[in-house]
Fold each of these.
Amino acid sequence: MSAPIYRTDYPADCLTHPLDGLMLVYHRPSGATHFLIDPTSDMLAILAEAPCDADMLARRLCHRIGTELDDEALEVTAQRLEELLDSGLIRAA
Amino acid sequence: MNDARVLTRALADPISAIEIKPADWPALLSIARAERLDGSLGYRLADLPLPDAVRSALDQARRDAEAGRVQALWEVEMVHRAFRASDLPLILLKGSAFAYAGLPAAIGRQIGDLDILLPRDSLQAAEEVLLANGFEWVKNDDYSQGYYRQWMHELPPLIHRDRGSAVDVHHTILPLTARRTPNAAALIDASVALRPGIHILSPADMIVHAATHLLADGDLAGGLRNLWDIDRLLRLFSVDRDFWPALGRRAVLHEMREPVALALRLASNIFATPVEPRIAGHDRMRDSLFTRRLLARDGWGRETRPISRLGFYVRSHWMRMPPMMLARHLWTKARAG
Amino acid sequence: MEAMRRLYAGYPAPEQGLATLTALIDAPRAWRRWIRPQAAIDGDFTLPGAIPMAIRHGLLAMEMAMNMQVALGERRHLLLHAAAIERGGKALILPGESGSGKSTLAALLGEQGWRLMSDEFVMIDLVTGLALPFPRPISLKNSAIPVMEALIADSSRFGPLLSDTPKGMLRHLRPSARSIAAMDVPAKPALILFPRFGDDAAAAGISQSELFMRMTEGSTNYVALGQPAFETLIEMVRTIPAASFSYPDTATGLAIVEQFCAEAGL
């Protein structure tokens, strides 16, 4: 069974506004407002460029923000992905 | 007689609203809100020359309905994502179905819970998927859970812990204890896929469902809105010449000829809906009792005619449950407070 | 009823006598009309589980019923649970729940050169960003009552004294004639202050993101309004300075408010 690919409608179906290092997002399809802390908005931006699975996402994320791709990075990525799925900002294909 | 006719008239014949006197508007707005038809009224009267205060109130109702529609469609999307992973079909019912399909009945409609239909043997899987995706039981005591699972036509209600939205999972249209129940398998077979994995009922079945829901499953509370749905749906569907024969056939198949006939007569009576007389049949004496119950609101939006209301409540429970069960159920409910 | 009429004396009648919201108080069960009579709050918009009140507090129940209609039904403007006062065309907004002291501060300032816009609900126009007034009788509670009684000579502006309500002693105060006359005059929000009564004097600035969050928490209709509300609120937090402060007594509170106002140019 292959790993799920994650897709997002961010930022196309959203209004976004950075405030104090947070990203405020109004997600039009759900009518919900989200406060995103790093690295969540980076993750969304990466998925918006090209959908991918969790491992690839972690790799691209670490490359983008300049950190090591270690176990902690994988775990943080996985946790944020869960939250993003719950909020509906991403979906698994 | 002061009742909701002022609302039905405005809905059926919007232009007539221009003649409403300022002193009569508060009652109309209150009744519309009480019947949850304020959004629909807002759209029906949208471009008419009306007093500013009224226009503002109707504008609010439209916005409210629109916000509700966005949320309802989002709920469909999120449940669809959860179901798709488990290959469960999503068959939408009522308001969410209208909204998803862009039917005229959806215009201005306030949508409450997400109502879906599933084959009975998919219920277990659906329950697991929903619980795994953030939904929780509303009534978690043993008696309620037992009551719903054994006798009712739906899972106990589920609410999403973050979104606060509710899902009602039905496996048929009426409780298992009802004397006659529509054919759930036939409803599912004839359902129409709007998108892979997202279905709505066929047009004729939609009317059968609405009629069943209006009359056989309730004490007619909120019945005017159901009847308005039926009016809007019929006007659209009847454009197709095959629709009326199909409705006749499906009403027979589901053993719902009488409820469908009565629903058509009431719609014709209250909203001047054009209906096929061969299916609607002749007016009956009982019709006026139903009509009065549907229109029972005073100028403050409160339900009137309590005696009539109680009669319908007892009747509706009797239709759902055999009398012995009814007594036991009411007794347990009373003890729980 | 007579008490209501007196409390709303001087308010303009609605155009063509047309009201668009219905607030109700009613006996929760028919027998409650006569045996220990109660008033339950109801109306077009309602919340389940509202506890009925004693009939002698009917005036309070009526005010609460009306508040509920606005809180639940407003969809034209962003509704904030806040007091607001105006000076020189600029508005100071004081968000807060019951007990924060916002009503008392606003009432006092409304008698000392400021125009009271509202003590309970402020509406923000989604197009212009202006604050819209909503001057209703102010609910004075407990210690605030003698303070205002001492300040205001015109006793006809006060409603009856209601004792042992769920919130203690309560007395309604009609806003000044100036407030009522200006009920359609908006003002540009220029400062947002979150008061907290009962602690030592202290103050802290609020970041934009925190302000955004607190404003949504203090709004009954932010979610229902959707995108326009998001945009309006972003604009507000970007352009309006905000702070929170605590105060041990009203004199100190007023002094802190005036100091902030001086710095913000109100």
Amino acid sequence: MNPQNRVKISTLPTGVPGLDDILGGGIPEFSFNIIAGAPGCGKTTLAHQFVFANATPERPALYFTILGEPALKMLRYQQQYSFFDLSKLGSCVRFINLSHVVGTRGLTGVLEEITQEVEAANPGIVVVDSFRTVIRNVPESNEVQVQSFLQDLGMLLTSSQATTFLIGEYVEAELRDNPVFTVSDGLLWLRQNVEGNSVVRKLQIMKLRGQESVPGMHTFRISEAGIQAFSRTLGLAGRKNTVRGASRLSTGVAELDAMLGGGIPEGDSLLIAGSSGTGKSLLATQFIAAGLREGQPGIIAVFEERPEEYAQRAENFGLPLHSAMRDGNLKVIYLRPLDLSVDETLQEIIDSVKATGAKRLVIDSLAGFEMALAPGFRADFRESLYRMIYSVTGIGVTILSTVEMEESFTELLFSNYSVSFLTDDMIRLRYVEIEGQLRKILMVLKMRGGNHSKDIREYEITSQGIVIGECLKDYDRLVTGIPSRAQRGTV
Amino acid sequence: MNRATPSPKHRDLVLRLIAFEAIADGVPGSNPPAAFRVVEKLRVPLSRMAGRVAFQALLTAALRQTKARVPDFQGVQINGEGLLEGGSGIANQDRMAEAGVLLISQLLGLLTELIGEAMTLKILFAVWPDFTVLPKEAERVINHEPAK
């Protein structure tokens, strides 16, 4: 149909940060939805968040409770969330218990009661919690009865222009041939899996008529603020990509810029790999400081030390991070190792990038990042990191990540984490043993955007930062860490 | 709202509710029936919000605790509709008045422990929108002053 002739489906905000992005804009108005999942996974909380975000005195929300969680207990616990607005109770949000109706009058009675309440209140939102118990507690119910009840209920609420949520404890095996799922316009499935000592919560939009939602499993967290969802696209889907590599960004080390062919291409992801003490963090800080000198805000995500310590260490090298933090041009995000999910960590980084207008982002380090995650999320690490790098570089931010390498003196490892595929450019720092000294060498391994120096250069860490020296042409097998003096020019 | 012994503040709140109902009755001294009507008026929104069974469970617990402290209240029962019955033939009016106060205090105390004071007050305001601003007649009821 011609788009101009189509009925326009408005959407309602869910009140759940991140969920509207996942749904493709919000919940379609007047839709008939199921929130399904096992007990304790956040179904009621999700419904409450939606209700308190949308109910008005003119179009109140009717929240029917049946035989699930006792209503008084539900109110006792739900009011602990910050979204629970007591002033809306009664005028905008009305709780109605129908447990006696189910027992005495069955599905017909439930439908009659809901009809009566809906006609009296003209609600904009109707929630039935738990709908599953309605079905379970009607012994004579059969599939035809249930289907008929659902269709009548759906018709009543849609014609009353109410957006509806039926909440039910379902398991995925019940998806097939269940009339509830057939009739519904939207199906939001919540899960929580225990992995090790951690709980991993995921949600999935299994069905949504009328609009395009983001497919797949999305992490969510339940906190004092309620549910927060983290879209797999990190809220950056559909953003217009900037032209990558349009300009070059200085690393803050002129010789290294030259080795990179003029600096890091804007919008690239650069990985610095090296073992402990090789200067990865220093190089990352010099990269940020160079941006600050050029008026480019930056973000540093640290996992292994606190922002104050990180900034102080930079100050020792003459890199004034403190003043940039005070001026709001630099944000150092300290992500504590407390069962983080990848997506919420990435969301915090992205929110900071958006808030500061950052052009440069440092992740120091990927190893620290992974260790900060709950074990259950580590399986998602590479995939999530890929999504973040793709999304953030897509909006023109240049990323420098560091990765700790276990040093081998027989071969040159690129990365323990097999994340090299995530990066456009890669620099390797390593120790070498030369003439009884442990010295440091640096090499550019990869530049996706073009040519780069093939030199293996010695460097030192000085009070002025990284200072790159000459190419060590007199040695062979430098990459092994145990070079030998080259035998050249002799016949 | 302490369940065992209502604080002066909560006692005052309960007295106000009873006074409101007593005035509506036109019989200022009839404390037990007024207290019963407070319960009856609470029954409607609470049963609607939390279910009949939940309301009756709260009232049963409140009545049990009241009877333990005021044995004269033994004859008071909850019928199938969740209404109080059997308070009529009690001789000692002062003790009965106190029992009425205690019963409602217990009921509101239980409710407050479950859903908090703010939400409990919200429910009370929905039933008695003006109960914090008592007419003079009600003040006399609370203070046991004779009607003029």
